[in-house]
Amino acid sequence: MRHICLRGHTAPGTTTLSDLTARIRENIVLFGALAANLGIAVAKFVAAGITGSSSMLTEGVHSVVDSGNQVLLLYGQKRAKRAPDAAHPFGYGRELYFWAFVVAILIFAVGAGVSVYEGYLHIVEPEELTDPTINYIVIAVSAAMEGSSWWIARREFKEAKGDLGWWEAIHQSKDPPGFIVLFEDSAALAGLLIAAIGVFASHALGEPRIDGYASIAIGGVLGIVAVLLAREAKGLLIGERADPRVVARVREIVSTYPAITAVNHVRTIHTAPDSIFVAISADFDDTLTMGEGETMIEQIEQALKKAEPRLSSIYIRPEKASEAVSDGAGGQ
Fold first, then answer.
1. CATH code of the domain in which 318 resides
2. What GO CC annotations are associated with the protein (predicted)?
C-alpha cells in the first residue's frame, strides 16, 4: 500500500535496573584498575631508578599509560551518557568509541614507542648491573595486583559473552571498556613475565643488554595489543550492526503480523553500547487503511521494544517488495 507514510519512533533514554547495575560494576572495575596501576607505576619507577633496569622503566611507563587509558574510558562513558539534542538527535553514545580509539593510539604511540626506544638506549649504552631483589619484589606484587584485575575483567567478560568464543565475543562486543581492560591486563601480565625473564637473564649471564631486548619485546606486545584494539574501535566508529540474533528476532516479530506480506529488510546500527537504531522495510497488505496501518505500526513498535529494550529508535517503512532496495551488508 502506497498511501501509508513513513513512521518512526524514538524511545526516551530510560535506564533499567540491570543497566545501572552493569554500569556500576563496570566502573568499579575501571576505578580498581586505575588505582592499582597508579600504585604499581610508582613502585616500578622506584625499582627502575634504584636498579637501572630498562624493562622495569618500560613497565612503569606501561602502567602510567594504562592509568591514563582508564581515565579516558571513564571520561568517554560520562560523555556518552549525555541526552540527545538538536545537533545529535540519536545521542552521544558513539563518543565512547572515539575514546576507545584514542586509547589504542596511546598504547601504540606512548606505551609501545617508549618501550622500544628505552630498550634501544639500554642496548646501545647498557647500565651496570645491580642487586635485582627489588625488581623481583615489585614484579611479584605487580603480578598479584594485575592478576586480580585480569581475573575480574575475565569473569565479567565471560558472563557477557555467553556461548560465543572469546575472540568472536570480542569482535562482536559493542562495549569497548569490557574488552579493553581485558586486553590491557593480559598485556600487563605478559609484560611482567618478559621483564622478569629479562632481569633474571641479565644477571644470570652477566649481560645487561638482555634487559634492553626485554624492553623491546614488551613494546612489541603493546604494539600488537594496540593494533587489535584500534581495529575493533574503528569498526565501532564506522558503525556496526546489532547482533544477528537481534536482527533475526526483529524480522520474526514483524513477520507474525498477517497484514505484513513480506519483510524486505531489517537494518540496524549501534548508536551506543546499549542503544540500537533499527530501520525496517516491509510490504503491507494493499487493503489496509491508513488508520489500520498506523495502529499496526504502533503495535509492532511496542512488541519490538518489549522483546529488545535496546531498540531505542525504530523506523518502519511500508514498501513494495518488488521496489525495495537490496539489503547489501547492512541488514538481513
1. 3.30.70.1350
2. membrane
